[in-house]
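Entry for the shared binder. Reason: the reviewer on the internal report wants the predicted structure included alongside the sequence.
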Amino acid sequence: MISIAFWMGIYIFAFPLHVGISYVQWHAHEMIYGFGVAVIAGFLLTAVKNWTGIPTLHGFGLLALFTLWALARILFLLGTPFIFIAAIFDLSFILFLTGAVVYPIVKAKQLKKQFGILGNLIFLMVGNIFFYLGVVGFVEQGMYWSVYGGLYLVIGLIIIMGRRVIPFFIEAGVGYPVKSFNSKWLDAAIPLLYLAFFIVEVFVGNRYASALLSAGLFIMTSVRLIGWHTIGIWKKPLLWSLFVAFLFINLGFLLIALSIFIDLPRIRVIHAFSFGGIGVITLSMMARVTLGHTGRNIQSPPKATTWAFVVLIMGAVVRVILPLIAADHYLVWIAVSQVLWISAFLIFVVLYSPMLIKPRIDGQFG
């Protein structure tokens, strides 16, 4: 909310912010390595405890991790004189997080099983290093590789984790017997094709190859989503919100595939992945995890939760779809989408922060 409010001030109202790099680079970095990686940290520290049965960071350890993250965000805002100190805290945060995730996985002898997740986290740290190397001019393409690589690493992690949890959530949550269709062939092909797409999109830059690979991903992920769909999800906001987030990721693949036929600036395509995909799935998972890990019934979220999802999805439509239809009002669409993003997360804060600052209602820990 705060980061997007700053971005609105900069982009819409020309608020001066002397961060030492371009405003767009600051916004992209902070939404990926500030917002996105913080979400991943929260998810992994929760999930790894469930996977391994071994407690992850809590208490002062978790406070220390948060402090590293927060100091990096604040120092980044103070501009050029502090950007390298910010880099130290920022990279220390990801390094500390990686160690906190690796320890229980190794102790539970799940390293082979969770290797893909850990690899993604390590690559995010490498991507962040490239950003700061780009800032000093040591690696010419460093900031580009970092921003686009970071974005697609986060999307890749969502695709991997979505395959693990969404079919299970649907089968357990719709209230009637259903079996999601999951193909072993798709499970093998989608990660491989996505890896090729990642390399071409970030490092090669061949728009025709990107479009071809993206078309393949659109087809395969569409088949997967059709196999996951059952009518009952539309009665459960914590299910349909996840499904809609994946539809936006799929839309991103479709738009890249179509970009060789129609003029689609990459920045507009990117927000299908980031605003619609990462944003919506983040809000949905935070609501689910908050309910589950405070001892509440995930089948009965607060009614206003639906409004938070609707408002955020409206923001994604305004940010991604409307500029394709009426590009002349581009600045208006950005401003409206920013207001809707802030509003959606504000609803979440109002609804869920009372749950998060109190002990679990069932008296258990964690």
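Summary line for the report: The longest helix spans residues 142-173.
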